Amino acid sequence: MGDVQLQHGNDRATWLDGSAVPCSLGSGHPTRVWRLVLLGAPGVGKGTQAEMLCTRLMACHLSTGDIFRAAKNACGCEPTAAMKSALEYMRRGDLVPDATVLDIVRERVGCLRCGGGFLLDGFPRTVAQADTLAGILLKEKIALDAVIDYRLPIDEIVSRLSGRRTCSACKAVFHVTGRPPRKSGVCDHCGGMLVQREDDRPEAVRVRMEAYERSTAPLTAFYKRLGVLVPVNADGSPEQVFERTLVALKA
Length: 251
Ligand code: AP5
Known about the structure:
Layout: E1 6-7, E2 10-11, H1 13-17, E3 35-39, H2 46-57, E4 60-63, H3 64-73, H4 81-92, H5 98-107, H6 109-113, E5 118-121, H7 127-140, E6 146-151, H8 154-162, E7 164-167, E8 173-175, E9 194-195, H9 202-216, H10 219-225, E10 229-233, H11 238-250
Parallel strand pairs: 3-5, 3-6, 4-5, 6-10
Antiparallel strand pairs: 1-2, 7-8, 7-9
Helix pairs in contact: 2-11, 3-4, 5-7
The structure holds BIS(adenosine)-5'-pentaphosphate (AP5).
């Protein structure tokens, strides 16, 4: 998998590749450890904020979408049948079945135990996933500090998705107008080629939005009941949203 293992200072190899790959994060963890979940519709800016938050809070960015994309791009080995089926769901914009996602997360439970903390992005996405996560955390005696719920009107979300470009090598995220690279089509971080994600096609975006409304939106009530929901307005520049998130976390 090589090129997606290290991203902006976080060692995500164990998360992306599964438990067989040892994590190279050693000691030297921050004094304040953060354990967060990012919620919000597709394209609201979770991945962008995750990059910035992980650098600032020194927590690891754990994205389930990145696991699937990494498996798809892994060279030299054929994906398993379960992974092939997951990639087909993803291509259409549908949610991958809970059983597959939960198997993948259970294999990586060591990342949740990590002393450096974590930032879950794209998981949980259904009430069944949230229930399972709650069970895992209870068993591990780990508490979530907050579940950040990014909110933005749908027309702005669609514009963010249609302009998104992702580095084919290091997976850094740009936007053709909102967060343009210094050189068009080329990643600022590693010089890789910027590409459009397959599930950012209009027909897949429609399916993703429906899946979000049906399956993921109910999680706001779930986490509100637990007293950890932190709503954040995702309008404005990435830096403005980042500052707003830090203020909300401090509060
Ligand atoms: P996943 O990878 O999790 O995608 P997603 O939730 O659809 O979220 P996105 O990555 O599309 O958007 P984002 O909110 O991270 O926005 P970004 O920061 O890139 O999941 C993909 C698929 O995998 C799912 O559809 C499903 O099939 C499967 N899957 C994954 N997890 C699963 C699970 N738990 N259960 C079942 N299935 C699962 O920003 C978007 C664009 O906007 C970028 O171009 C960015 O530069 C730009 N932007 C960001 N912030 C701003 C801003 N403030 N101003 C202007 N532009 C901005």
